[in-house]
Specification:
Elements (H helix, E strand, L loop, with lengths): L8 E6 L4 E3 L2 H8 L6 E5 L2 H8 L3 H7 L19 E9 L2 E9 L5 E11 L1 H18 L6 E3 L2 H9 L13 H16 L6 E3 L2 H4 L10
Parallel strand pairs: 4-7, 7-8
Antiparallel strand pairs: 1-2, 1-3, 4-5, 5-6
Helix pairs in contact: 4-5, 4-6
């Protein structure tokens, strides 16, 4: 018998209506498509209340995210770029993935949820979506991902996943097959770079649910 997942609370510092929300769906309504949205998840309501009294960056730094505009490291990310990330409830589990503009964290796309996916599959699909968007708009921004596996799949133009095809993930595998075919038909002419989490903190596309 599976354990019931613990409820989370979501603080929105910057969004359509800042505040504290008790479900991801309600939080998403406030931040989806909102330029420079700032939000994080917390394990209980009291923790969320205390966090809301502080600034986003004060809390984000405690959770491993840094303000990339204030990095003092010798090596820094290219701000004029796209960052992608995936979130999965379990592995495999319910999957979402998205891309943002690295400089402003403005969301470019957000897909999901898909049943029975993996983080690496989500990262791969997000990179392909970013590549397709760049081609459509005749741009050559670098793309950042924190998944070495997904980046290697892009290079090889094939997906080496152990995830079994089931009735639950038919739509996900359709997207995966379509993405592989797109890669085979289109040259990759922009850098795809591994995000240096230990130096730069969490990737800008991170869902903030840790």
């Amino acid at each position: 018998m599976s354990k019931k997942s613990k409820q989370k609370f979501y603080v929105v510092w910057r969004g359509i209506k800042p505040g504290i929300y008790d479900s991801w769906n309600e939080c998403k309504k406030q931040v989806d498509g909102y330029e420079g949205a700032q939000y994080k998840s917390f394990g209980d309501h009291e923790e969320a209340l205390n966090a809301y009294k502080k600034s986003y960056w004060e809390i984000a730094q405690l959770k491993g995210k840094k303000n990339i505009h204030e990095l003092t490291t010798d090596e820094k990310p290219i701000l004029n770029s796209i960052s992608v990330d995936a979130a999965c409830k379990g592995n495999p589990g319910e999957l979402e993935f998205r891309g943002v503009f690295t400089d402003t964290e403005t969301e470019l796309f957000n897909r999901g949820p898909y049943e029975m996916g993996t983080v690496n599959i989500g990262e791969f699909l997000a990179i392909v979506l970013a590549l397709a968007w760049l081609k459509k708009n005749k741009l050559k921004y670098p793309i950042y991902s924190d998944s070495k596996t997904a980046i290697s799949w892009i290079t090889k133009k094939r997906v080496n996943t152990k995830l079994a095809r089931t009735p639950k993930n038919i739509e996900l595998f359709k997207a995966l097959d379509s993405s592989v075919e797109w890669l085979k038909a289109n040259p990759v002419n922009v850098p795809i770079i591994k995000w240096k989490t230990k130096i730069w903190g969490e990737i800008p596309a991170d869902y903030g649910r840790k």
